Amino acid sequence: MFEIHNYAWSLVGACHLHRLRAYALKFMSLLSVRLDQDSGLRAPNMLEAQQADKTIWHHIGELCESATWSLDDALLEFTQNRGYLATLLQPRPRLTRISQAPASNVSKGQKGPKGGSKGAKFFKGGSKPGVRWPSEIWRGSQKKTLCMRFQSGKCSNKDCRYEHACGYPKPDGTAWGANHAAIDHDKTPH
Questions:
Q1: Mean pLDDT of the 72-78 span
Q2: Residue 102 has pLDDT above 60, yes or no
Q3: Are 32 and 88 in contact (CB under 8 A)?
Q4: pLDDT score for 160
Q5: Do 93 and 41 form a contact (C-beta atoms < 8 A)?
Q6: Rounded Cα distance, 91 and 37, in Å
Q7: Is the dihedral of CA 114, 155, 131, 128 positive or negative?
C-alpha cells in the first residue's frame, strides 16, 4: 500500500519519491519491531498503525498549509526531526489472558450461576438438545415465575406457587405460555 501511495504522490509531482520511501521505511521499521515474549509488550496492531499514519498525515497537511513548508520538507521533518512516528508506533503492553475458572458442580439445594439474555432467567432443558426454557413469563403487567418441575413433567401439585404454563421459547425468547408443559411442546398442536 505504501508503494502505490508513494508512486502516486511522486507522479503528480507533489514530492520526491526518495522522501516518501524514507517515511515508509521508518514507519515499517517501527511497526515491525520484534519484542521478547517476556517483556510483556507487543507491537501495534493494524488498526493502531492505520490511526498513527492518519495522524501523521494530518500533521503533515497542517504544515503544508503554510506557504513556507513543502511536502518534501514536511516529510523530512516528520521522518528525521520530530518523534511523532516513534511515539505513535511505540510498543504497547500485552494484555494477559484471564483463564476461565472451571465450572463447579452445583449440588441439590444450591443455586447455580445466573445467566441468560435480556435479564430473563433460563433453565436448560427441553425436548431438543440445546433448547433453553425461559423461567419467567409476563401475564398482563405482572411477571410470573414458571414452574420448572412442571416444564419437565414432574410437578402435579395443584396448589403450586409457580405458574404452570408452557416455558418453551418463542423466536423472540419469551415463553409460549400455553396450558401444556415445555417437554410436551413439540407433541402439542398450536
A1: 87
A2: no
A3: no
A4: 82
A5: yes
A6: 12
A7: positive
Strands (E), the chain: 41-42, 92-93, 122-124, 132-134, 136-139, 142-145
**62: amino acid identity, one letter:** E
Whole-number Å distance between alpha carbons of 42 and 53 = 18
Q: What is the 3-state secondary structure (H, E, C) of 23-63?
A: HHHHHHHHHCCCCCHHHCEECCCHHHHHHHHHHHHHHHHHH
Is the torsion defined by CA of 16, 20, 25, 30 positive or negative?
positive
* CA distance linking residue 68 with residue 59, whole number of Å: 15
Q: Do residues 121 and 134 make contact, with C-beta atoms less than 8 angstroms apart?
A: yes
Asked whether residue 111 carries a pLDDT value surpassing 70, the answer given is no
First to last CA, the chain: 59
DSSP at 69: -
CB 151 within 8 A of CB 181: yes
- Give the pLDDT of residue 117: 44
* Surface-to-core class of residue 31, CB atoms within 10 Å of its CB (0-12 exposed, 13-18 middle, 19+ buried): middle
Cα distance between residue 158 and residue 11, in whole Å: 86
Give the three-class secondary structure for 122. Answer: strand
Q: What would the grid cell of residue 115 be?
A: 445467566
